[in-house]
Amino acid sequence: MVRSWMSTHDIVVSYKQSANKQEQIEILADLTASDAETIIEVLKDAGVFNPNDLSFRTCKRCGEKFFTTQASGVVVCETCKRKKARKKMQDKTIKRLKKQIERYEAENEKGMKSLVPSWFVIEHRRGEIEGMKYAISLMEQEGMR
């Protein structure tokens, strides 16, 4: 059941009165702060949902069927969109960490050559470098799944 100011009756009436059933499901999902699948479930429970009123598309990446109001263009489900965005963010993070590792290693090399190397800073940076390398390896393993 949708938890909002709209009752099931309100949702059903609004759906029945709409000229464009497909668009109305998206509107109802926005109004109730839920997703289209939840609204479809409410309409199914009420016995007014007709799958022929809607167009379900197949995701080109995962093959899963999903509801969309998008008439044309690349068809990708929300799950695949989120995965792609997450992968992009991980790639940026990995790139940033690798740059920082290179900088720290260069600073450590420079510090080792100085007359009075700061062992604390060098050891601290070595620990940070190892931690960053570990984080990168975890992100790369997760990205491979």
| Low-confidence region ranges | none
Spatial strand sequence of the major β-sheet: 1-2
How many alpha or pi helices? 5
What is the string of helix and strand elements? HHHEEHH
Q: Biggest sheet, in brief?
A: 2 strands, antiparallel
**DSSP helix fraction:** 55-70%
Rg computed from alpha carbons, rounded to a whole number of angstroms: 26 Å
Indicate the proportion of strand residues: under 5%
Overall structural class, as computed from helix and strand content, comes to: mainly alpha
The strand count comes to: 2
Inertia-based shape: elongated
Give the overall pLDDT as a whole number.
Answer: 79
Task: Provide the number of structural domains.
Answer: 2
State the end-to-end CA separation. 34 Å
Oligomer class = single chain
Q: TL;DR of this structure?
A:
The protein has 145 residues and is mainly alpha-helical. It has helices at residues 8-17, 21-31, 36-46, 78-113, 119-144; strands at residues 56-58, 65-67. Strand 1 (56-58) and strand 2 form a beta hairpin.
